[in-house]
Amino acid sequence: MFNCFDFYKDIGFICGDVQFDITYAGDWPFLAVAVDNSFHIYSAEELKLTYVSEPQAEKIKHIAADPNYVCTVTNSKLRVTNQVKNEFDEIDLDEPVSNLLAVGSMVVLTQGSVFKGINPYDLSDIIFETDVGCDISAILHPSGYAGKFLLALTDTTILLWNIHSDMQIYGFSGYNSIVRKIVQSTIIDIFVFVLEDGRLVFHDVKFDEFQFSLPHPSPVNDISFRTDGPGQIAVVLENGSLYVWDLKLKQIITNIPESHAAAATTVCFLKGQNKLITGGIDNAIRQWEFDPEASDVVRILRSRVGHQKPPSAIGFAEVNGINQLVTASGTSTVIASNPKSEMSSAILSIAPLNRKHMICDVKSLSTTNSQRYCSVATTHENGTLVFLWDIENQRFAKRTMTAMPKNGARVENDQNISFADFNGERKATCSCLTRCGNFGCVGTSAGTVEVFVTQSGRRKGSIEKAHDAPIVFVHVDSLNTQVVSGAEDGSIFFHNFTDLSFTGAVDIPAPLKGMSPHVNSQLLAIASNGKIVVLDCQSHHIAREFDVDGEHFCFSNDGKYFFVSCRNEVYLFDMITSTLIEKVTIDRPITGIAADPKGDLIATLHERSVATKLWYFRPNKITTVDSASNVGDAQQEGFAIFTVQPQLKIKNILNPPKDPLKFAKNKIIIPFFLQQTSTVGSVIDEAAALKELHDIVAPATEFVKLMVEESEGGNFDQTIQTLIEMNFDQISMEISALRVDDDGRDERLIFVQMLKYAVQRRTEFDIIQAIMSVFLNEYGVKILENPQLKSAVKELRDAQEEATNFLESDVSYSQYLVQLINRIV
């Protein structure tokens, strides 16, 4: 992303399609889970995220864990990561890897018919390498079999290979099906061969005897033996089912058909415990607990669950003073998480709704700062109802709003909502919640906006003037004074929130595609006809235009910067100067973006990804503007351009630091007279010092000379640029040193003319206002004593009034001027 973006982490991506590994560091079990191009480490007992690896260039295909390192493989690289030191080493691979094992001081992998061992602490050190003549489908290093590996070949042959003698010491023809996995049972010489046809074959390798087999209706992905007493084996299938077999009775004692919504990839009993961990490609890891008194009773103890489908909507909601990141996907999956502490993430319960009734995918969501009645509202594709959600209690709030002109349904059970409520004549196209959380608005396909009380779902009313096209956005300002709605035809209407009476309208080029508000101001960014316009809701004027066809966009938390995505391109704009700061191209297009309104986090959703990426926005890293393109003069007409000077400088101009010794430290003491000296050199040196001092305090400084010179032509551009580039203390000195020169020119009068020119030019506007304030404070009384100066200041006042009237329609003044001058950057 941008140079001023520091990647923080991915959240919401819990588990992918790669089978994860579990190992023990002493008595602490942990999971090493591959998530796209990085891996996470979770504590197995608490499912707490403890480590996030550095991302790799490609997707991880295999992962294996050892107490001291985690080994990962992509299509082209093998990487070994020391998670304690957060260091890694990697090498290139010449062929794809089909199997990967971490065996103490050796990493074992297979590539086609070759299997080899590599020193994990020196990846250039190949410990052994063997070609068995046929592709290897599965591999295992059995406990108690030093230096030996069981290999399953794609011709169904099974071999026991001694790596020290580099020879086969045992083999048999197999069971007419390719082996997917080999697992050692609790009896050291009995192994389970997981076959592609769904069978589990138990075979005694020591006596070369078939024991028995267990059939399954779907291919088996993983198995695990229980070690705390009962002779049981857990099996997870490609269809997401979890089977638990009693090995003594050879029968199923527990069958959970939907343990995961999609294929389950991993299953593992914790050593000596009645706890079982499963993972699946439905982006979930679950911990199951078996009843200690009834071994066939199992329940979910804890879980980490993410979106099964890529999220379609994102936003921030404040709950108990903490900002929660909210994402929504599918028809009813709403997940809220603290972006700083992912352990607090929760998927909101839809009870008492029936999931079968939720047939419309989430289109957008809106949030509020108050969790009293609800925290989030979701709008659904071609749906009539807008559902309210309670993050604090992690559930559906049992209330809805509707696009129909009637009260929203209060839902005590799923029978309360009729089919007609779900599928009304009007469709909800957008929604918003007020900052206080007491009210909500629904934009409809009929061009109306319905207003509701969120506590009860009661309809408050409808806006007085309806649009002629479906509503694209609806917004209520932070003080609940007006409702702003925009339709596809480009019409934007303003209504009084109290009585919903019509107060004004603005037309912008159609079609409207979307809107993003700045929550702490009156600014709305609206995508319109291939551009993005920034609307000031207070003055009903367009404040800024950006010539980019944005799909997803948002303001920074302070409103100073603006982020826009358009397919694979992302833009960063400076709102004050209307300057494009940076443009980057990314691999996965952004499908949603949101800024933390109280922090420096930026959250992004990406195409084909269930993860939410978090970034730290560091505006202090914006030192240069590469390939910048300023808004042209014609496009910028009617806007005020603010300075790019540091805002601390403006603050110091208005309020100089209180350091009375600052100038005393550098003060040159003028001697009352020059002492007689015995050498001519001393007199010359002192005379030179006196001349240098005279030049410093002389009225005609270089700045004054330039100002006087430019005054003859009536153009002060270079003078203004020189002045604003000075330090704040230099600016104060130049202003205080203004006087009538030897030719009778009043430098103060020329300075006022320069200020008038600068105000009329309306560039570097904020720093010019600060300089004007310093000048007027310095010469306030003297202005009244000088008729010429008084007349010039009156002209300056008229120019300032003209600029002020102009600025009343420019959001730059109302939104930024006071804020920037009083904020220390």
* Unreliable residue stretches: 626-638, 660-681, 693-699, 809-825
Shape descriptor: elongated
Q: How much helix is in the residues?
A: 10-25%
**Number of helices, where a helix is a run of at least 4 consecutive DSSP H or I residues:** 11
- Secondary structural class: alpha+beta
Keywords: WD repeat
Domain WDR36/Utp21 N-terminal: 32-291
Domain WDR36/Utp21 C-terminal: 670-821
WD repeats: 257-291
Tell me the layout of helices and strands.
Layout: E1 5-11, E2 21-25, E3 28-35, E4 38-43, E5 49-52, E6 62-66, E7 69-73, E8 77-82, E9 87-92, E10 99-103, E11 106-111, E12 114-118, E13 126-131, E14 136-140, E15 148-153, E16 158-162, E17 167-172, E18 179-184, E19 190-195, E20 200-204, E21 209-214, E22 220-225, E23 232-237, E24 242-246, E25 251-256, E26 264-269, E27 275-280, E28 284-290, E29 298-305, E30 313-319, E31 322-329, E32 333-338, E33 341-347, E34 362-367, E35 376-380, E36 385-390, E37 395-402, H1 419-422, E38 428-433, E39 439-444, E40 449-453, E41 458-462, E42 471-476, E43 482-487, E44 491-496, E45 502-507, E46 512-517, E47 523-528, E48 531-536, E49 541-546, E50 552-555, E51 561-566, E52 569-574, E53 579-585, E54 590-595, E55 601-606, E56 612-617, H2 633-636, H3 647-654, H4 680-697, H5 702-711, H6 717-724, H7 728-736, H8 747-761, H9 765-785, H10 787-807, H11 811-821
Antiparallel strand pairs: 1-56, 2-3, 3-4, 4-5, 6-7, 7-8, 8-9, 10-11, 11-12, 12-13, 14-15, 15-16, 16-17, 18-19, 19-20, 20-21, 22-23, 23-24, 24-25, 26-27, 27-28, 28-29, 30-31, 31-32, 32-33, 34-35, 35-36, 36-37, 38-39, 39-40, 40-41, 42-43, 43-44, 44-45, 46-47, 47-48, 48-49, 50-51, 51-52, 52-53, ...
WD repeats: 257-291
Domain WDR36/Utp21 C-terminal: 670-821
Domain WDR36/Utp21 N-terminal: 32-291
